[in-house]
Amino acid sequence: MGLLKGKALNWAITAAAGAGFLLFGYDQGIMSGLLTGRAFTAQFPEIDTTEGANGSASLQGTVVAIYEIGCFFGSIGAMVFGERLGRRWCIIIGCLILSVGGALQAGAYGIPQLIVGRIVAGLGNGMNTSTIPVWHSELMKANKRGKGLAIELAINIFGVMSAYWVDYGLSFVENEAQFRFPLALQILFALCTAAAVLVLPESPRWLINHDRIDEARQILSDVRIGIHEGANTEAILDKELAEIKHAIDEEREAAAGNTFKALLKNGSQRFRTRTLLGIGGQFMQQLSGINLITYYAPVIFQQSVGLPRDISLLLAGFNGIAYFISSLVPIWIIDRLGRRKLMLFAAGGQAVCMAILAGTVSNGSKSAGIVAVVMLFLFNFFFAVVYSPFLGCFLLTAALASASNWIFTFLVVEITPVSIKNIQWRTHIYFAVFNAFFLPLIYFFYPETQDLSLEQIDRLFTGGKIQLHWKAAMGGDVEGPSESPSTNGEHGDESKPACGKCVNAKEECLWGQIITFRPENALCLNGSDGLQQVEPSDERVSTQSPLMDRARRSPDTRRSIPAGNRVSSERDNRPTDSPSAISYINGNGDNSTPRLPASTRSLSNQDATTMLRMSGWSRNYDNGQTSMPSPMSTNPETNAFAPTRLGLTPRSHESPEVTTNGTTENAASALMSFRTDAAQTQLQPPAVDFPNMGFDVDPNLANMLPYGYSPEALFDDGIFLPGSAYQELHKTFRSHVFNAACSKPTSRRGTPDPSADETNAGDSGAAESAMSTTDLRMEQSEGTSTPPELTPRQERKLWSNWITEISSWLDKFDIHKHFRHTLPSMAERDSHLRLSMSALSARQLEKKDGSMPAYLSLALYQEAIHVLLPKLHTKDLAVIASCVVLCVLEMFSCSPKAWRRHLDGCANLILSMNVRGDSGGLEEALFWCFARMDVCGGLISSEKTLVPVSRWTLNDSFVATVEMYKSADGFEKQAHYACYLLGRILDLFARFQIDLDTTNSLVRRPPDQHAAYTSEWDQLMTAILDWYTDRPPEMRAILTQPATFGPKSSPFPTLLFSNPAAIAANQQHHTAQLLMLSHKPADHKFRRKTRSILWHARQICGISMSNDHHGCWTNCIQPIWLAGRMMSHPEEHRAIVELYERIERETGWGTKWRVDDLKEVWGDLSV
């Protein structure tokens, strides 16, 4: 328990309940085909009623029907002991008993043993069928219960169908396996059901009934996750627990200490009526004639219709398929039409089918036989539509109803063989009469339970008269008005409205809570100018805003007004420091400076445009896919929304007048209406009011940087758009990192370098001068920001995501897993590292599935930078860790074509602190994490790495480095070596100005360069091939399979590796081979044999598709692009596109830009 939550848990519960009903259906149908089997009748001739045999029809009926007697006593046992055992253990014990019964039947050599086996199996099945529906219903949401039970029906009928086809398939076997194997197969279903229920939660209703409230609350929380989107989940859980507790208390009071006697009384809870209705539902099921077909379908086809045995078995199998398909219909219609309508429809249809069946069987002609077969098929359709029409509201009622079910089933199954043999076609007449009788019974006595919770069903039976339909005046809430079941909380239920943006983002909607809208901030849409500010009006409701006019005409506006009225009373009483509150009124009583709660105060003065871009539109800005206009003016007179960042003093602007409630309500409605059209409107990013903190690198420092810096990007940069908060934060951070890289380290060791010391000594004055102004700015900003406050659940989710997802990206070369084990420990003492890690985790969850609020990653990113800036000059190892983590966040969020600009600051800091790939420990892990990003950026931009490969290790020569890695211990070092070789290729191509995007297989250089390029290419290619042939066993594939074309196959080879280092290293190797062979020197004959470019391209794709490690996926986006250009078959294209889509869906990394690039390359062959 606890591993699954939300929809996954609900489906697991439904699957477990369905497995129990699959077993039930299989047991029902298995005997029908065995009764006419040659091996079975040879073993048990006493019940052989086939033509020419002398077996007893009554004994045959008893052997088949005795199973129902066992089920009856099993149901009684569940009624007596079930409430003590609990729902889960009652099901598990039932499955174990059934398994024993199945073994006895499979091993039977005589009628007595067969009868005992069927009784024992019935005991277990009776316990299950009494308990599983109750357990399932008590765990399901009311508006999903009908669909869930319909799914149970479908699975039950699938079991019947399976039994028919198992019988038919084994009918061709002449030995005893013909009947022993089908009887033994039920043991497998029973054990699977027991195993599934063992790991699933107990019924919260049963737990509450036994005063285990905390467990019940946790289970309800797990089951309801994702259902109450945009709502106060805690309040809903409290309400649901209170309703269950209230219903249980009423049941206890009505029972007056004796629950069994209460079933026979008609007190305030009307237990007797409910029990009789439950028994009546079972009566209608079994006396409808369904068991006539389920248990004896082949017998009917053979003896009544006159078909041969083989055809009878085959038709029974097809009848089972039709039965199963029909059972799928209620899944979609039962919660829409309700149960009463379907019950009436089915009873009428069944009566007609049985009447026609009686007439056609009596005729005996071939055409009548065809009609009879059709009627049998059609009868199953009608029955499947309305299976399980009524549920008892607690276990005793359900168990007693289930027990009555088995008595009625026993009667039908017992008399059917005798009836068919003696009165023949007249058997169907009394079933037709029964079905006709059910119509008034349903119409006058059975209530509609559509969308009602079990507690609301209780209310149908309380009071002076049983209500056949729910009425709003009946309430349903223990301490207040209930959600109307007919509206599902949408219309007229007095609940707070939740805007679609928050619902889609899976965030709690703060709509209408402690917000005062200001008319001077009202925005309208202008066809040419985009967002335009509307002049404030003294009128109660502004008529100058087309946006508000449209909102007043919207039906959503009318629906949301009552909620607004109710919220007004809460607004007056809510404390201003509430974490969920947003107050636009300051301590002086005016509205001059908006103030947010502590959890988001560092994001104060966010305007509507920024919030739309951050939350609902954030995905549109990622990966540079959206083109944005120039930023708004930063003049305070034209922009009233000058956001504050890094805790700096915001720009002042005039205080508006206090607005009235009427304006508030209409502005709220306007924003609701505006949201629906926002996706089609392109907004200009707001101006961001940052003081000049050195966004551009000081000219005095530019020449002092260890590497240099990238120029300002001229293209859109993901969420780092001009004027956005992300861009301004990045500029500030990057500028300070450059300044820190030029300063002298205060607490870091480094390799002695006399020439470097002389340079530093000569330039120290310039560096200190450049730093002084920046340090002063940092001191001024320090201490003015409030860290974002995370709820315990958010914090737990962020750290869990770091441990299970993010760290796997960053530790793939590291067997010691420093990002998983060491960084969380360091984060306890270094708040900037903790904030950086939390920001990356929040951003990944935000992009992957929207499970984190859209503003949270920005708030954490901002606070991480604010805390980190004063620490940069210390050049501590934790500072490097924070910078690397923030680089990952920025690369995850920015346009891939701007990666180098987001890496160059950290590259200079790494060089200045002498962090290398052979430093050991955490330093080495941080370096290789950065080096992989550096290589990826170089592959995209066709440039050399930001950290020169000559500085990756202490050995500055290529030959010395190769020898070092060849003699290194540990297979993870070979992953470092593969990455190093790929970095060497980038360095080689950059020096000889080779564009990686070209696929020219022969490179012709000017004569003075050709020899040098050929020599270096040959030396590097030799090292690459040596890596592949000499790699240790841990770096080799543990499974290889060739490619196959066709349905459910892969057009690329399968190469499965045992560890992420091997996955990434082999992919880097094939990428290196592809690049080297694509740019082979002209007229050069390499002395060693190599594979083709296409072979390496297919290996790259195959490795990515065969291994699901998310960390390796994050680095394969560019290699797949390089390889994908080589592919020409549409199946290959489709597989690559599906892989890219899966990577983005499961990790959040943007891949669509590469899909678009590949489709352009493929042209007419594109998918």
From TrEMBL:
The chain crosses the membrane at residues 65-82, 89-109, 115-136, 148-166, 181-200, 311-334, 340-361, 368-388, 394-415, 427-446. Signal peptide: none annotated. The keyword Nucleus does not apply. SUPFAM superfamilies: MFS general substrate transporter. GO terms for cellular component: membrane. Residues 549-559 have a biased composition (Basic and acidic residues). Keywords: Membrane, Sugar transport, Transmembrane, Transmembrane helix, Transport. Its main location: membrane. It is found in: Membrane. This is Sugar transporter-like protein 35. It comes from Elsinoe australis. The lineage of its organism: Eukaryota, Fungi, Dikarya, Ascomycota, Pezizomycotina.
